[in-house]
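User: Here's a structure from my thesis project, written as structure tokens. My advisor, Dr. K., wants to see whether a designed sequence matches the one we expressed. Can you design one independently, without my sequence as a hint?
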């Protein structure tokens, strides 16, 4: 029989942030095990269900009995299995383990030797005999680090489990998992549904829960339902939703029968920076703030309830009352923080340890001031403003608001700096110095903010790396990969004409008392070059092209992207492959010789082909160098493409490694000059197939 299979675990409320992952993992493992045992075809489409109180999956076209299988067991090699015409103990033992006589064995081949083989037909097993094992395997593989026991049971799971359904079509498959016997009954919504709900058929699972249990069992369907209700409610209020994707996922994992209601709060709270209010609503209360068309917070919010009722006033008023208390706390913190200026807090940072090997936050601020001033000077920006911003960037760590909401570091510093009368440039630099905080985040918006942001990230990178806390595998507790990517993005996307190696050396010089490893700067530079490769690969550039550019260890990161784009264009030219191969050949020849420092001498050239190459290189050299100096990398490579025929003729007609020392050295000097010219933009030998 072939029919849909339903597996459901009925539980207490599951961890909301883990629910989507748990549901997907549970369903996928069951499908994988069924596929492995030939109960379903590979690639079968299945439906995942995950709500606060259940994990479930339905899989169509599951057969009730495995097909018979032709099994082949291989035994000892024929050459060693007989001795004096009699079977060896190895052969007789193999036959005995197969339950047959030696004469019943056949001969096959294992790919190397002829071997004795036992072939037989294995009768397919029933789904009923395998399903409990499959379910238990899925439970063991769930990504759940913490398990619990409940009642007097020995079983363990993320939350107490109260029911198990194993239904094949309309037939219950008997079995026991987590000390629960399987059946066809489940429970619906905790308050809107009464009594047990019987599932008549596996295909009717979602529909029955919806109609009788007031449960939208599918996480995806429930999320779409909530988002639709939120957007309609926001539109009816002539508002728009604040950024809500992460919160939407969490709320979807908290409700089974969502209903969206609108509430309000006093406009007096809008005097508090809206970032504080939004964070308080989203993080503490799981509410959805509403904004006007200009992105300004309104004194209304949306709440997703797990109860649908004709009169939601008691739900709305209850949520408004709770929110009022939360916003009152935020308002209090904001008012208290204003009683002390940011610059008055800085000295207290000497009581805050940054790292026991790197000193206090105040020592860090002193390093940031120096480094930000240096970087601003290189960018021809106001070094005094950069130093002032760097002096204040960590002061908001000591405010009550940041103590309550650490996510507001920098943001609150910006607001308090404005209140204190600091310039907008300084205020924006305080907020921007944490940017980019994550992939796709915005960059600092001006050179002063960029100088402070670079100083902050470089100080972290050099300091933490220098004391040996280097990222390994998935472990990167200080976020050095994120900081490295932040530096690279600022330099590359802004772009900023700064030398990465010099920046690292300046940051290293600011650590006067800390004992950092001697090789910190070169090791960190190499680490950042690897991060640069990953960044470029993430932008879908060809790996070979990336290697051609980054293998040269570029110090000017702002020039990397145009070089990669130029090499990508060059690679499509018909001359590219030949020149890349020639460059690779030049590199291989020069590796076997001592470095050649002298320029080629035209009077020592004998062959027509080497004279032609000398003249061609002399002609194109100033053109290429001019293009490179003006960052016209594509034009530089196109100019090199014109050398193809001359280079090919040289290698066809000239013996470079001749026995005559002067001729050999002169030809090597010519190749050195050609190789250096070819590699002005990138190591194009990397493009050779």
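Assistant: Designed independently from the structure alone:
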């Amino acid at each position: 029989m072939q029919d849909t299979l339903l597996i459901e675990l009925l539980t207490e409320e599951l961890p909301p942030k883990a629910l989507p992952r748990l549901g997907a993992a549970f369903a996928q493992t069951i499908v994988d095990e069924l596929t492995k045992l030939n109960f379903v075809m590979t690639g079968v489409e299945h439906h995942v269900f995950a709500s606060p109180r259940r994990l479930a999956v339905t899989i169509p076209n599951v057969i009730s009995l495995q097909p018979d299988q032709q099994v082949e067991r291989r035994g000892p090699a024929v050459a060693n299995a007989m001795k004096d015409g009699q079977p060896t103990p190895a052969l007789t033992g193999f036959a005995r383990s197969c339950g047959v006589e030696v004469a019943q064995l056949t001969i096959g081949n294992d790919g190397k030797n002829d071997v004795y083989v036992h072939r037989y037909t294995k009768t397919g097993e029933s789904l009923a005999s395998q399903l409990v094992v499959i379910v238990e395997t899925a439970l063991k593989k769930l990504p759940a680090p913490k398990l619990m026991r409940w009642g007097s049971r020995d079983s363990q799971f993320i939350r107490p489990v109260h029911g198990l359904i194993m239904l094949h079509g309309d037939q219950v498959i008997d079995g026991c998992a987590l000390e629960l016997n399987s059946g066809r009954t489940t429970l619906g919504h905790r308050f809107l549904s009464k009594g047990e709900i019987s599932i008549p058929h596996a295909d009717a699972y979602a529909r029955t829960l919806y109609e009788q249990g007031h449960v939208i069992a599918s996480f995806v369907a429930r999320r779409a339902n909530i988002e639709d209700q939120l957007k309609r409610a926001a539109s009816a209020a002539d508002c728009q939703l604040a950024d809500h994707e992460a919160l939407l996922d969490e709320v979807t994992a908290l409700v089974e029968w969502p209903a969206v209601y609108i509430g309000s709060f006093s406009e007096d709270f809008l005097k508090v920076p809206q970032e504080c209010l939004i964070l308080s609503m989203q993080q503490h209360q799981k509410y959805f703030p509403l904004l006007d068309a200009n992105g300004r917070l309104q004194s209304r919010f949306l709440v997703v309830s797990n109860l649908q009722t004709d009169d939601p006033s008691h739900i709305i008023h209850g949520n408004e009352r709770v929110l009022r208390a939360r916003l009152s706390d935020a308002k209090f913190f904001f008012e208290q923080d204003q009683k002390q200026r940011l610059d008055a807090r800085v000295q207290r940072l000497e009581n805050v340890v940054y790292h026991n090997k790197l000193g206090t936050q105040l020592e860090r601020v002193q390093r940031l001031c120096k480094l930000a001033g240096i970087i601003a000077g290189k960018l021809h920006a106001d070094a005094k403003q950069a130093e002032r911003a760097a002096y204040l960037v960590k002061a908001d760590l000591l405010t009550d608001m940041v103590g309550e909401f650490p996510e507001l570091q920098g943001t609150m510093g910006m607001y308090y700096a404005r209140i204190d009368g600091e310039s907008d440039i300084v205020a924006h630099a305080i907020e921007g110095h944490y940017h980019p905080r994550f992939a796709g985040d915005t960059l600092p918006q001006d050179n002063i903010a960029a100088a402070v942001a670079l100083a902050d990230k470089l100080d972290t990178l050099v300091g933490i790396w220098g004391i040996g806390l280097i990222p390994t595998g998935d472990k990167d507790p200080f976020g050095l990969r994120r900081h490295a990517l932040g530096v690279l993005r600022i330099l590359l996307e802004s772009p900023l004409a700064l030398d990465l190696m010099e920046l690292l050396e300046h940051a290293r010089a600011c650590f006067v008392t800390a004992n950092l490893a001697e090789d910190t700067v070169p090791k960190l530079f190499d680490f950042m070059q690897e991060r640069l490769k990953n960044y470029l690969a993430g932008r879908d550039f060809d790996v070979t092209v990336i290697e051609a550019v980054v293998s040269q260890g570029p110090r000017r990161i702002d020039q990397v992207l145009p070089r990669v784009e130029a090499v990508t264009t060059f690679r499509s030219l018909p001359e590219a492959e030949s020149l890349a191969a020639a460059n690779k050949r030049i590199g291989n020849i020069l590796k076997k010789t001592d470095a050649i420092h002298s320029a080629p001498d035209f009077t020592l050239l004998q062959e027509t082909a080497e004279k032609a190459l000398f003249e061609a290189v002399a002609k194109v050299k100033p053109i290429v160098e001019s293009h490179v100096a003006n960052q016209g990398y594509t034009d530089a490579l196109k100019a090199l493409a014109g050398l193809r025929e001359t280079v090919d003729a040289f290698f066809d007609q000239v013996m470079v490694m001749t026995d005559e020392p002067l001729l050999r050295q002169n030809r090597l000097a010519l190749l050195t000059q050609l190789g250096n010219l070819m590699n002005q933009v990138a190591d194009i030998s990397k493009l050779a197939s």
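When you compare it with your expressed construct, this may help: The mean pLDDT is 94.
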